[in-house]
Write a structure and sequence with these properties.
The protein is 33% helix and 28% strand. The termini are far apart. The chain contains two helices and nine strands. Strands 1, 2, 3, 4, 5, 6, 7, 8 and 9 form a nine-stranded antiparallel β-sheet that branches. By secondary structure, it is α+β, with helices and mostly antiparallel strands.
């Protein structure tokens, strides 16, 4: 009898223990373990995030300005090549320099034969605006004026004239029949210095070009 009672109590105790919920469930409200960031951790995280974002933004701005400056430099080089190519072709085709326009370091008018036999002219004119940026315009007697070169700085364009032996003329008061060769020299620059997009000064000096349709020893 006694052993049977003890056995029944033992079985009852084991049964109660088997269905008893874990101690964590029986914790009083408000006493549970809660995980969260402290104020210091939030401030540190915000500071690190701001530093990373600032670095990324700075790199993005720098890259954008560098690409803009590179594009500006490419534009200057493209215009320079086009100008030299056009000028060289016109001079090589020219039979001489037209005297109806005063010869100067900034203006020259070339006489070029046409397919019809009638002579035409092509005028190169350098104009400096009030802001210090100049342009070179090519104007044919029959056709539309074309701006060959922009962003010329500090009156930085000069036509140079040479005789058959390569001696340079320095006076433009009158037409000089001894001119046999021409050269072009200019300096260009574009962009804004304050925002880092300004290019280096692009200086170009052409080789002396012979007036091929005019006798070299004439």
């Amino acid at each position: 009898m006694v052993s049977s009672a003890l056995s029944s109590r033992r079985d009852l105790g084991e049964s109660e223990n088997s269905v008893r919920p874990p101690s964590s469930v029986l914790r009083a409200p408000g006493r549970g373990s809660t995980r969260a960031f402290t104020l210091v951790e939030l401030l540190v995280g915000a500071t690190l995030s701001a530093a990373v974002m600032a670095a990324v933004l700075s790199s993005y701005i720098y890259l954008g300005r560098s690409l803009n400056r590179l594009a500006n430099q490419q534009t200057l080089e493209t215009e320079s090549r086009r100008t030299l190519d056009t000028f060289t072709k016109d001079v090589q085709l020219a039979t001489g320099i037209d005297t109806s326009t005063t010869l100067s370091a900034s203006t020259v008018r070339l006489t070029i034969p046409s397919t019809t036999g009638a002579a035409t002219t092509v005028t190169y004119t350098f104009t400096n605006d009030t802001g210090g940026n100049g342009t070179l315009v090519r104007t044919p007697s029959a056709g539309t004026a074309q701006t060959l070169l922009r962003n010329i700085i500090n009156n930085g364009l000069t036509f140079r004239y040479y005789d058959a032996s390569g001696t340079e003329y320095t006076s433009y008061a009158n037409y000089l029949p001894g001119i046999k060769q021409l050269a072009l020299e200019f300096s260009t620059q574009t962009g804004v210095a304050n925002n880092g997009t300004q290019t280096l000064v692009h200086r170009v000096t052409s080789s002396r070009v012979l007036l091929r349709n005019r006798g070299f020893l004439e």
